[in-house]
Amino acid sequence: MFSRQPNKEQQTKDILERGSILHMALQDTDGFFIQPVSYGFSTKKGQIVLYFCGEKKGRKYEAYKQNPKVSVLIDHLSGYRIDSQQYLPCFESLRGTGTIEEVEGAHKKHALFALLQHCGFEEQHIAFDEILLDPELGFYKIDLEEVVTKKSV
Predict the structure, then answer these.
(1) Distance of alpha carbon 100 from its chain centroid, rounded?
(2) H or E segment to which residue 45 belongs
(3) Who's near 151: CB < 8 A, 6+ residues apart?
(4) pTM for the model
(5) Domains of the chain
(6) How far apart (Å, rounded) are the C-alpha atoms in residues 101 and 142?
(7) How far apart are CA 79 and CA 75, in angstroms?
(8) What are the respective helix, strand and coil percentages of the chain, to the nearest 5?
(9) Which DSSP string do the residues of 110-139 spell out, in sequence order?
(10) Do 117 and 88 contact (CB within 8 A), yes or no?
(11) Nearest-CA neighbor of 18 among 91, 101, 108, 71?
(12) Is 76 in contact with 93 (CB distance < 8 Å)?
């Protein structure tokens, strides 16, 4: 049984918290591709912002420099159930669209903290200055414009 509900705030936050990988659909001159990344997030007044970091080189980097529009998927598989002799997955997902933008200054630090928090790292074990000052590492945000959540129970 599926339930689709456009952006219910608590359900959305639950999916963001339980998900572990952000799948980004990007496009470059060679076509479409999916790029999985670790992510962090913030929510404020119904607006969802996703954060990730990556090297400032390679296909992913070149793709969003050329075309910053992106589709995203975050999902979480919680198990399976038997229904009429079938095994059915129980999952929840969030999909949306947005625009990738590099963040700088205080926003860069916020992006790093959001990413580390979601990935389960404790702040005292991280060399923040070394990470934040690395010229080869970029921090990015995606302001989600359209969000749909889905839950299969």
Answers:
(1) 11
(2) none
(3) 2, 3, 5, 11, 91, 92, 93
(4) 0.84
(5) 2-152 (2.30.110.10)
(6) 6
(7) 12
(8) 25, 50, 20
(9) HHHHHHHHHHT--GGGS-HHHHHT-TTEEE
(10) no
(11) 91
(12) yes
Q: How far apart are CA 27 and CA 152, in angstroms?
A: 29
CA distance 107 to 111: 6
Distance between the two ends of the chain, CA-based, in angstroms? 6
10 CB-near residues (< 8 Å, 6+ apart): none
Classify residue 74 as exposed, middle or buried by CB count within 10 Å of its CB (0-12, 13-18, 19+).
buried
The sign of the dihedral angle between the CA atoms of 28, 71, 119, 151 is negative
The mean pLDDT values, 10 residues at a time, for the chain of 153 residues are 58 89 94 95 90 94 94 84 76 91 90 88 70 88 90 70
Report the alpha-carbon distance of residue 95 to residue 85 in Å, rounded. Answer: 30
What one-letter code names the amino acid at 60?
K
Q: Which amino acid is at 108?
A: K
Kind of pairing, strands 40-44 and 31-37? unpaired
Q: What pLDDT was estimated at residue 14?
A: 87
